[in-house]
Amino acid sequence: MELLKINNLYKTFKKHRVCAVDGASFSIFKGEVLGLVGESGCGKSTLAKLILRLIDADKGSIFYKGKDLLNISRNDMRKTRKDLQIIFQDPYASLDPRMKIGKVIEEVYDIHKNVSERDRKSKTIELLETVGLGETYLNRLPSELSGGERQRVGIARALATDPEFIICDEPVSSLDISVQAQILNLLIELQKRKNLTYLFISHDLGVIGSICDRIMVMQSGRFIESGSYEDIFKNPQCQYTRTLLESAFLP
After folding, report:
1. All structural domains of the chain with their residue ranges
2. What pTM was estimated for this model as a whole?
3. Per residue in 43-101, pLDDT tens?
4. What is the tally of helices (H) and strands (E) in the chain?
5. Burial class, 215, CB count within 10 angstroms (exposed 0-12 / middle 13-18 / buried 19+)
6. Three-state DSSP class for residue 62
7. CATH number of the domain at 2-247, out of 3.40.50.300, 3.30.70.2740, 2.10.10.90, 3.30.565.10?
8. φ/ψ of residue 52, rounded to 5
9. Which residues face 5 on adjacent strands?
């Protein structure tokens, strides 16, 4: 089933005269992990923000389950957004340093009203256990956690709305290699267990290849190549893709 469909999406930042997303068109199917790879500044994170309507597109369409997200009210988008979540690149910057971990997750319930007051603590503990942490983390501050633990909290927070679709925006780029593998394994396990759909963004083809079903290569706001793992890794058509492969860490 086609879960998300993007048609001719454009975004230009006029102040800097940069076309960050230049006619993007693609589909994501339910239960799929679609990889988006390209160097920093190519438009990957801008595309993620456009999908979630965190910034406005210049033109184009974004259909989620047949609903055009660019033509619904902000109130309807707020209701839809609980199905569309994001895991950010920097697990420390995305957490309020003054809030204990339990409150970081419970803040999601305040916004979406999806868990009763009575069930909040047990739901939060369940989420922490799901991502490999547990009840002992409820009263800790982000500064008391390692980078990998903070990213696990970020994943738990994304899961707090029971979403169908998650954008993973460079979720392991700030972590060391051994922790990267742990977080990638957790994301793969959760995707299979909960039948989640991911748009997985990275500048590293090695990371993309370890988790994604299909891969799109982005350069200067445009998709220049797409295909399966075999297509991209065994028979790349563009020199840019070959350069990305040469710089990737391939386990």
Report:
1. 2-247
2. 0.92
3. 999 999 999 999 999 999 999 999 999 999 888 888 898 899 999 888 778 888 899 99
4. 9, 10
5. buried
6. strand
7. 3.40.50.300
8. -85, 0
9. 27, 63
